[in-house]
Amino acid sequence: MSEKIWDVYLIHHSHTDIGYTERQDKITRYHYDFIRQAIELLDLMHQQQKPEYQGFVWQCENFWQVKQFYKFADDELKNKFEAYVKSGEIGLSGNYLNMTDLTLEAAFCDVMKQVEDYGKRIGHTIMAGMSADINGLAWGYPEILHRYGIRYFYTALHPHHGMFPLYKKTCPYYWETESGNRILMWNGDHYHLGNEMFLVPHAGSDYTFHDEYTDGLRNNSVLNKDSDSLEQKELEICTKRIGRYLDNLEQEGYPYDLVPFMVSGAITDNAPPNIEIARRAHKLTELFESRIRFKMVTLEQFFEQVEKRCTNIPTYRGDFTDWWADGVGSTPAATKIYLDAARKYDLCKKLDPDNMVVSNEDMLSAAENLMLYAEHTWGYSSSVSEPWDSMVESLEYKKTAYATNANTAISKGLDDIMADMGEVSIRQDKPQRYIIKNPHNHRLRTSCYLYIEFWEYIDGVCYDASMPIVVTNSKTGEVLKSQVKGIARATQVEVEVDLEAGEMILAELHLANDEELKENTVKNHAHIGADGIEDILQDVRIDEYQIDTEYFTIRLNENKGIESIVWNKDQTELIRSDSELAPFSGVYEITDIDTTPCDVRRRMGRNRKSCATHRYLSKLRNRRIVEDGPVYSAIELDYELMGTGIYTIFLKAYAELPKLEFNVRIHKSSRWEPENLYIALPFTAGNDNSFYVNKTGCIIRPGIDQLPGTCQDFYLIQNTMAWNSGDKTIALVTKDAPLIALGDLQPRRIVLCNQADEKRNRDQVFSWPMNNFWETNFKVSLGGFYEFRYTLMVEEKCAVADVFEKCESENEGILTGYAE
User: Fold this and answer.
1) Antiparallel, parallel or unpaired: β 90-91 and 58-59
2) Residue 691 DSSP one-character state
3) Which parts of 252-292 fold into alpha helices (H)?
4) How many Å apart are CA 662 and CA 554, to the nearest integer?
5) What backbone torsions phi and psi does residue 259 show, to the nearest 5 degrees?
6) Rounded to an integer, what distance in angstroms lies between the CA atom of residue 245 and that of residue 193?
7) Backbone torsions φ then ψ of 143, nearest 5 degrees
8) Which run of H or E residues covers position 472?
9) Dist. CA 314–CA 318, nearest whole Å
10) What is the rounded CA–CA span in Å between residue 401 and residue 276?
11) Distance from chain centroid for Cα 9
C-alpha cells in the first residue's frame, strides 16, 4: 500500500425491502423498531462513555422509515430522534423508497413535499438521499429530487442481472437534469460490500468476492469457531480485503483518498442496527496505524467531504435506465390495477388541484399506496423455489393490495369530484342525461362512453341494444355521432366528441324517430345481395381483407394478419418493411429446466433468456368483422400461440378519428419454467425516425438520452412510445403493459449504452407484458386471462413533447357520468 492516508466512511443503514424477508406489515414495524434501537444504542453510548462505541451513527435509508417511526413512537422517542438528527448522529434520506420506474410523477411529488416539509418542521433541511439494491432511476427523478431540496444522492447498486453505469463504480459525478439542474451523485458499490469486507462484527458475508476465504465462508467452515478466534479471523479477512480493495483503486488510478461503504447490522435486508460497527472501526484504525481511518458517517457528512476533497468531477446527462424494471411483467394483472389508479390520481390532481373536494390527507394516502406498489420488492425470497409456500402467497396478495387500495381510495376521490360536478347515482326512473367532461388543459377530439343499464326504459319503452338511438348536446341540440354495443350488464354507447380544454357538456339520448332513421332505412346497396353478404369490391372497404377510414387504410391477409397500415394523408406505410412480425402478433419464449427452477434462471444473466430458450411465433387462425357502424368498425384476429389457450387481437378502426385501438386478449397457461411473452410493435415514421418513450418526469430517446454504460435492451415507461420523423409522429399509448423491449430478442452479449446508439434507437420494439424469469422473488405463475390495450395515433406538425401530452390525455380519457 502507498503512503496515502485513506478515510473509509461507513454508512450504517437498513436496506428496505417491503416484503422479501417478511410480510409487509411486519416490515413496517421492523423499521420503526430499528430506529428505536438506534436511539437506544446512542443513549447507551452517551451514558456509558465507552470509548470503543464512540462515533456510532445511524443512517435512515429513506423517508418511509421515518414515517413508520412517527406512527408508533411516543413523544419522548420523537424528541430524541429529532435531537440526534440535529447532532448528526442520525441521518435523514430525502428519497421516499427504493423505487421502480412505475413511479407516478404526481404521487412522487406529493410524497417529496412531505419530505421537504418535515425537514422544515424539525429545523433540519434534508439535502441528501440514497437508494440501495435497485439498478436505475428515470431521468426525471433527479429533477423532482432537486425541486424538493435534494442536492446529493448515493446509489448503492446490486449488479445481479444488472450493472453499474459509467462503466465503473466507486466514483462521484454530477447528474444534470434536462432543465440544467445538477445533483452530486456517488456511484456506489454493492450495498452489502461493507459486510463482505467484514467491517461489521458477526455480519460478514461472501457474495461478490472470490478469494482464498470464499470456499470456507460459503460452506460455513470459517465462522463457526469460538468467539475469540472468530474475532481474529474476521479481522484477518477484513484487513486483507480492505487492503486489497484500496490497492486496486490506486492501481486503477482512483484519484481520491476517501471511499465509502454501506454496512448493515446483520447480513440480511431489513437489518437491525449494530453498535459493534463502531468498535470495529476503532480497532481497524488502530490495526492500520491510522494509515486507514475508519469512521461512521451520515450521508450529509459523507457528501460534505466529497465536496471538499473531490475535484474534477464529471457531469453526465440522461436516463439511468433500470435493469430491474422487469418485475412488473410477473404481475400483469396487479400492474393493470395500479396503472388505472395512477390515471385516476392524475385526473384528481387536474380537476381538484387545491384539494377543495378530496382532502390532502386522502390524496397522500392514495399516493403512499401507489409508491408502495411501485417500490422495487416484487415478492418473497422463495417465490420461485417454493411457489406453493404460504408466505409467498401472503406477500403476493399484500403487494397487490397496495395497488388495489390505491385504486379504491383514488376512485372514491374521483367519484366525489364527479359528484361535485353534477354526477348522480342511478335511480329507477333516471333520465338518459349525462355529463361529458374534458379534464385536460387542451382540446381533445376523441370518443367516450355512456351506458344504458339493462333494466332501463327509454321514452317509455323497455330498451334493448337493437333499438336505434340518438345522442344530442342538450344545450345546442347538436347530434353527436354514436354507436351502440351490448356488454355484460348494459348497452355501451360510444360517442365521438370534440371538447375544448376543461369543457363540460350535458348530453342526452332518446330513441331515433322516423326522420332520424330515414337514411338507414332507404339505401341502395349495389355491393350487398339479398343474402346480406358483402363480397363485391368497393372503393371504400370494410371486410376481412381491408378496412378504410378517413385517416388509415389497413390491409390484412390470411397468413400474418395485419400486413399494412397506411396513413392516408401522405400515403406512408406505418409498418417497418424489415419486420417479419405483424403488429400485435405474439412471441412466446420458454426455457427447459435442466437443473433447478432457480439455477436455470440465474444463468440467464442480463439477457433474460439463454441459447437453450425455445421461441414460438403466433399463427393466424381466423379473422372476422365483428362490428361496423358510424363511429368505428372492428375486426377480431384469432391466433394460435404456444403457452396460451387464447390469443386474439381486437382491432377498432375509427371512421373519422386519427386513431386505431388494439386490444390483445390472452388466456395464458401456468408454467414453472422461465417464460417471456412479447407483443410485436413494428411501427415506423420513416427510415430516419427517432424513437422516444416517456418515463417518470421525462421523455427520452432510448440508446441516446441515457447515462453511459446503462441498459438499452428494455425500458419501463409511463404510457407512451413514439416514432418521430420530421413533421410526423406515430405514437402508441399502452394502458396496461408498461414494459417494452428493443432489439431482435436473440440471446447475445449485452451491449451497454454509449449515448450515441442510433441503430439501437431505431431497432424493433416489443411490448413485454409477461415474464417470470427471475430466480428469487418474481411471481412464477403467469396463468390467467388478460387484456392489454393500445391506441395508435398520428400527429403532424406537432412537437414531440406536445404529442406525449396529448397521448397522456388520450390514456386518461374523457370523463362521463349520469346527470339529473
Assistant:
1) parallel
2) E
3) 276-287
4) 13
5) -150, 135
6) 11
7) -65, -45
8) strand 469-473
9) 14
10) 38
11) 33
Lookup: cell for 207: 457474495
**H-helix or E-strand spanning residue 808:** helix 800-812
521 versus 588: the higher-pLDDT residue is 588
Angle at 649 between CA 644 and CA 651, to 5 degrees: 170
The upper half-sphere exposure of residue 464, i.e. CA atoms within 13 Å in the direction of its Cβ, equals 1
The full DSSP string for 166-192 is GG--SEEEEEE-TTS-EEEEEEE--TT
CB 279 within 8 A of CB 53: yes
**Grid coordinates representing 816?**
362521463
Task: Give how far Cα 277 sits from Cα of 232, 297, 305, 442, 603, Å.
Answer: 15, 12, 21, 57, 35
Give 69-118 pLDDT, tens digit per residue: 999 999 999 999 999 999 999 999 999 999 999 999 999 999 999 999 99
Amino acid at 593: I
627 in Cβ contact with 634 (< 8 Å): yes
pLDDT digit string, tens, across residues 754-801: 988 899 999 999 999 999 989 999 999 999 999 999 999 999 999 999
List, for residues 139-163, the tens digit of each pLDDT value.
999 999 999 999 999 999 998 888 9
Residue pair 780/382 in contact by the 8 Å Cβ criterion? no
Dist. CA 423–CA 253, nearest whole Å: 67
The cell numbers describing 680, all together, are 410485436
In this prediction, residues 32-43 reach a mean pLDDT of: 97
Task: Show the beta-strand stretches assigned E in 736-814.
Answer: 739-742, 765-771, 784-796
Which residues of 13-136 form beta strands (DSSP E)?
A: 58-59, 90-91, 128-132
Kind of pairing, strands 469-473 and 479-480? Answer: antiparallel
Q: Pick the closest to residue 399 from 25, 776, 787 (CA basis).
A: 25
- Grid coordinates in use for 158? 446490486
Buried b (16+ CB within 10 A) or exposed e, 673-693: bbbbbbbbbbbbbeeebbbbb
**pTM for this model (two decimals):** 0.95
* Cα 485 from Cα 466, distance rounded (Å): 9
**CA–CA distance, 750 with 752 (Å, rounded to integer):** 6
Q: What angle do CA 792, 795, 798 make, to 5 degrees?
A: 140
pLDDT of 285 above 60: yes
Q: Residue 768 and residue 511: Cα distance in Å, rounded?
A: 44
Write down the residue that cell numbers 454509449 correspond to: 754
Residue 450 corresponds to which cell in the numbers above? 355512456
CB under 8 A, 24+ apart: contacts of 797-800: 797/727, 798/729, 800/692, 800/699, 800/722, 800/724, 800/729
Distance of CA 295 to the CA centre of its chain: 37
Give the model's confidence band at 294: pLDDT under 50 very low, under 70 low, under 90 confident, else very high: very high
For 663, the enclosing helix (H) or strand (E) is strand 659-668
| Sequence-separated (6 or more) residues with CB below 8 Å from residue 412 | 362
C-alpha distances (whole Å) from 711 to each of 233, 635, 705, 768 are: 39, 37, 12, 16
Residues 6+ apart with CB under 8 A from 574: 565, 566, 567, 683, 684, 685, 730, 792, 794
Quick one: what percent of the chain has pLDDT higher than 70?
97
- Tell me the residue ranges of DSSP E strands in 389-443: 433-437
SS3 at position 490: strand
Which residues face 110 on adjacent strands? none
Residue with cell string 413511479: 103
- 815-818 and 504-511 strand pairing: unpaired
